[in-house]
Design goal:
Blueprint: E1 22-26, E2 29-34, E3 40-42, E4 72-74, E5 80-84, E6 89-93, E7 104-108, E8 115-120, E9 125-129, E10 132-137, E11 142-144, E12 149-150, E13 171-173, E14 181-183, E15 191-194, E16 206-211, E17 216-220, E18 227-232, E19 238-243, E20 252-255, E21 262-269, E22 272-279, E23 284-288, H1 305-309, E24 314-316, E25 327-329, H2 332-335, E26 343-344, E27 350-351, E28 354-355, E29 371-373, E30 376-377, E31 381-382, H3 388-406
Antiparallel strand pairs: 1-2, 2-3, 4-5, 5-6, 7-8, 8-9, 9-10, 10-11, 12-13, 13-14, 15-16, 16-17, 17-18, 18-19, 19-20, 21-22, 22-23, 24-25, 26-31, 27-30, 28-29
Length: 407
C-alpha cells in the first residue's frame, strides 16, 4: 500500500495550468476527479451518514435515484418523508399540515393523461371519473353530472316491499333507463319519500310522499296519475286536495270527512279573506265578502227599475258549440254600462301575438321574429250574481207600485 501523508502541513495536489483536473484512478481506470473549477465527480459515492452541506445541485441529466425504503427526509426532526417501500410510494407528513401550493393543482394518473381532481385558484374544484368531469364547485354551489347515489345507515339499495316499514333510504338517484329516486327513512316517524315504487306502508304508487305528523303529500304515478295533498288512505278516501287526471268525480277534488260546516276554499289578497267556498252536510255556498264593517256610503234609495230596463237579456249559442245549442244570457259589453262590477275585461280587447326570440327553441322553418302564437281574443266575462241586487231592488220597487195601485 502506498501512502501520501503530510503530518504538519497542508497537503497540496496541484494540476497546474488552465483546464487541468486532478484525477484519481483505480486499476488504471478513472474513478473520481476534481476539475479546475472545484467540481468533484465520482463513479459512486458512500459515506458514514454525516451531513453533507454546501450542495447547490444534485443529480444531473438522469436525476437522483433512491432505492426501496431509502427516504428523502425534510425538517429538523425528519417531519416529512418521501420514499417507496417496494410496493407503494409514500409521502408522510408527521408534523403540522401538508400543503400543496399552486394556482392549479392536478391529481392525475401515472401516464399523466387523465385527471382525477383539479383545483383552480379563484375557481372550481373538479372531480373526474375516467377523465370525465362528474362534480364541479361553482360560485352558486355545485354541479353534478350523471347518476347520483347517496347512501346511509340502513340503505338496502331500494325501498321495502308494499305492506312493510320502509328502511332508512337516505337518497338514491338513477339516470335514464333506471328511473329511480328514493329519499326517506322510516314510515313510522315523520317521513319524506320521493320515489316511484310502492312505498312500504301505503299501498299506492307515488313519486313524492311527505308525512309530517301523519299528513301526506304525494304525486301518484298510478292509473289516475293524480296529485294529492292531505291525508289519504289506500282506498283513495281521506281529507285534502286531489287533482285527478281521469277520475269520474272531476279534475279537482277538495275532500273532507267532516259533515259540519267547513270552509273548503278561501280567496285571500292584501285586504284579507275576500271570498270562500264552504260546505254544510249536503250543500255548497259560494261566498264573497259582505260584512257591513267593510262598507261605507250605504244608500237604500237608488232607482233600480230604470237601470234594469237597460239590460238586454238574449238567447244565443257559442261559436265553439257545434250543436248550436241556445242558451240564455247577456253580451258582456252591453251589461258593463249598467252593472260594471259584473264585467271583467274590456270590449274588443286582444291578446297580442307572441314572437319567437333568441331564447326560444326555434323549430325548423322558423326564425327569430316569426309568430309563435297568433293574436287571440282577450274575452270579456260576466259574474251574473252581481245582477241579483239590481233584480231584488227592482222587484221591491214594482211591489211598492202595485201596492200603491191596489190601495
Amino acid at each position: 500500500m502506498s501512502t501520501i501523508k503530510s503530518s504538519n502541513e497542508h497537503l497540496t495536489l496541484n494540476a497546474d495550468g488552465s483546464g487541468k483536473d486532478i484525477k484519481f484512478q483505480s486499476n488504471g481506470s478513472e474513478v473520481a476527479s476534481i476539475s479546475d473549477g472545484g467540481v468533484v465527480t465520482a463513479t459512486s459515492y458512500a459515506g458514514s451518514g454525516a451531513n453533507l452541506t454546501g450542495i447547490s445541485s444534485v443529480g444531473g441529466a438522469t436525476g437522483v435515484d433512491f432505492n426501496d425504503n431509502v427516504k428523502a427526509r425534510f425538517g429538523t426532526s425528519n417531519d416529512l418523508e418521501i420514499y417507496h417501500d417496494a410496493t407503494n410510494s409514500l409521502l408522510v407528513n408527521n408534523t403540522g399540515g401538508l400543503r400543496l401550493c399552486s394556482d392549479t393543482v392536478y391529481f392525475r394518473n401515472a401516464a399523466n393523461n387523465e385527471n382525477g381532481l383539479v383545483f383552480t385558484a379563484d375557481g372550481s374544484v373538479d372531480l373526474y371519473h375516467n377523465n370525465a368531469k362528474k362534480f364541479e364547485t361553482t360560485a352558486d354551489g355545485v354541479t353534478v353530472s350523471g347518476t347520483t347515489v347517496m347512501t346511509g345507515s340502513g340503505q338496502t339499495g331500494g325501498p321495502a316491499s308494499s305492506g312493510t316499514t320502509q328502511v332508512d333510504t337516505v337518497a338514491e338517484f338513477s339516470g335514464a333507463g333506471n328511473q329511480r329516486l328514493y329519499v326517506g327513512n322510516d314510515t313510522s316517524s315523520n317521513t319524506m319519500w320521493l320515489q316511484n315504487n310502492n312505498p312500504g306502508s301505503l299501498d299506492v304508487n307515488y313519486a313524492i310522499n311527505l308525512q309530517p305528523n301523519g299528513g301526506l303529500l304525494y304525486v301518484s304515478k298510478g292509473n289516475a296519475g293524480d296529485l294529492r295533498v292531505g291525508n289519504f288512505v289506500a282506498n283513495g278516501t281521506g281529507q285534502g286536495i286531489k287533482i285527478m287526471s281521469d277520475g269520474n268525480q272531476g279534475s279537482i277534488i277538495i275532500e273532507t270527512h267532516l259533515t259540519t260546516n267547513r270552509t273548503m276554499f278561501s280567496l285571500v289578497n292584501g285586504n284579507g279573506t275576500i271570498g270562500t267556498i264552504s260546505t254544510s252536510g249536503s250543500s255548497t255556498s259560494y261566498n264573497t265578502s259582505s260584512d257591513y264593517r267593510l262598507k261605507e256610503n250605504v244608500d237604500y234609495t237608488w232607482d233600480a227599475t230604470t237601470r234594469l230596463k237597460q239590460l238586454k237579456p238574449a238567447r244565443f249559442n257559442f261559436i265553439a258549440d257545434d250543436t248550436n245549442t241556445l242558451v240564455d244570457g247577456f253580451l258582456a259589453h252591453e251589461v258593463s254600462s249598467v252593472v260594471p262590477e259584473a264585467i271583467n275585461g274590456e270590449k274588443d280587447a286582444m291578446q297580442p301575438a307572441v314572437l319567437y326570440t333568441a331564447n326560444d327553441d326555434i323549430p325548423e322553418g322558423k326564425e327569430v321574429g316569426d309568430v309563435k302564437f297568433a293574436e287571440t281574443i282577450a274575452s270579456q266575462s260576466i259574474d251574473q250574481s252581481k245582477l241579483v241586487p239590481l233584480l231584488v231592488k227592482t222587484i221591491q220597487e214594482l211591489e211598492a207600485r202595485i201596492t200603491a195601485l191596489e190601495a
